[in-house]
């Protein structure tokens, strides 16, 4: 773990790594766009339409409107997590793209930082595809939605950095199954997307405070419903601190893995 | 400082590298001067690649001093990396991109503007005979084409120093000769080259000076010709050892100035005086023999031994 607290030497060149990933993605982005839209809409139709009849209003809004913002931030989590697990691991190990860049003036910390930026972009893109669809269906209409892209960026950085930490330790693709089934999926179900945390046993609500996704859901729901209160500033602060720490560790840990 | 040292592009002093509790490079000194091709020759595990990795700023030194273009590799890695081109042992082209895109995007890491990057890329594709492949995906290229593209990519920043780790391992003779020709062309332009190889022919074809390494140490250094002169006698015969054993042959050769080596079922006799050696041909004629001039390979095997390396 030596070097994990060192200040990473990250400069403007991280952008070049982001550009490389963007250029590679542009070659088959169409397939990936449709994929982004599919899953959230599936959940929306299945849960929203299916359960709405039985549930009625939740927190003063129709159930389908209640879950819609959570599904958007969940799609950010999924897209950013996938990019910085499977995507980054492929670039790091089998393709050796990281190795190729490390012998240029771009250093390994910038490679890792560029991958985090790219992972965040994938999450951002995913949310920006879904959001207009939900708005068009009339599921959200608050003017606060204008600032939601900033939330998606911050959340994308947060999950990209978290995923890259996992990548810096994983011996093979197989180990990502643990991350997704033990970390990502529980967050999906217990961060207040499908039911208000206040309806859960108190210990679940307390545990959920430690889930990064909970804070993203809180902010997203406030922005989409227009019930914006000062409490979301705490959620944003939580995410800022966590994202900063996770990015720091991710960059140093990738360096520890690759610089021998 | 002497005149030669002033021109040193790479200068290593007491360089060591530890890996997982093992010392892969055990305190080596060497200088590479401008516009020469300097080769590291050695069996697998000799420490060649480890040394290259330190020179190209890929892995940090454990101890010692290493300067490239007069800059300290620890303090100024970016300044150094901007002026070197690297061809690693394993190809790491970007499979998501086409041939041309590989070069264009690599150029970006060196802050080369897009227009200039495309110009340089087209020129380099021409130089490496890849122009008609420019829009091909990497997965569609043969091994030789991929290697040529690796060389082209290493040249995108117009490097003063080119570092090649086993540039032609695994290629067919046509592809190998094409790469050698191009590398000789680059050296004529005044670029410095540092390469590792375990092909003696490659070393002899390309290198002005060689360093034979084994076990993390330098065993010998000099031009290919001077190494052959110093470590191997002028001519060699090699033959299968007769059933009666090597002693009989050695007895038969009495009166000749020679050195010999036994390896498995084969015996090597080295002698400066080829004519005198052949006069004794009756000693080993029975089983057939090969008579040739001593080569770098003889030097290499003599210095590093004949046992198999994993």
Question: Brief overview, please?
Answer:
The complex is a heterodimer of chains A (260) and B (310). With 260 residues, chain A is mainly alpha-helical. Chain A has 10 helices and 2 strands; from the N terminus they run ααββαααααααα.
Q: In CATH, what is the homologous superfamily of the largest domain in chain B?
A: P-loop containing nucleotide triphosphate hydrolases
Mean pLDDT of chain A, nearest integer? 92
CATH topology of the largest domain in chain B: Rossmann fold
Query: Level of helix content of chain B?
Result: 25-40%
Proportion of residues in β-strands of chain B: 25-35%
Shape of chain A: globular
Largest sheet of chain A: 2 strands, antiparallel
Summary keywords:
heterodimer, A: 260 residues, mainly alpha, 2 strands, globular, B: 310 residues, alpha/beta, Rossmann fold, Alpha-Beta Plaits, 2 domains, six-stranded mixed beta sheet, 12 helices
Detailed description of the structure:
- The complex is a heterodimer of chains A (260) and B (310).
- Chain A has 260 residues and is mainly alpha-helical.
- Chain A is 74% helix and 2% strand.
- Chain A has a two-stranded antiparallel sheet.
- Chain A has one domain (14-255).
- The longest helix of chain A has 32 residues, at 63-94.
- By secondary structure, chain B is α/β, with parallel strands linked by helices.
- Chain B is built from twelve helices and 14 strands.
- Chain B has helices at 3-6, 48-55, 77-81, 99-108, 114-127, 143-154, 173-188, 200-206, 224-231, 246-252, 274-279, 296-304, and strands at 8-19, 22-33, 37-41, 63-68, 71-72, 84-87, 161-165, 192-197, 209-214, 217-222, 235-240, 259-263, 266-271, 289-293.
- A six-stranded mixed beta sheet of chain B has the order 6-7-8-3-9-10, with helices on both faces. Chain B has a four-stranded antiparallel beta sheet with strand order 2-1-4-5.
- In chain B, helix 4 (99-108) packs across helix 5 and helix 9 crosses helix 12 (296-304).
- The A-B interface holds A 13, 16, 19-20, 23-24, 27, 95-97, 99-107, 259-260 and B 19, 56-60, 77-78, 81-82, 84, 86, 88, 90, 92-97, 101, 105-106, 108-111, 157.
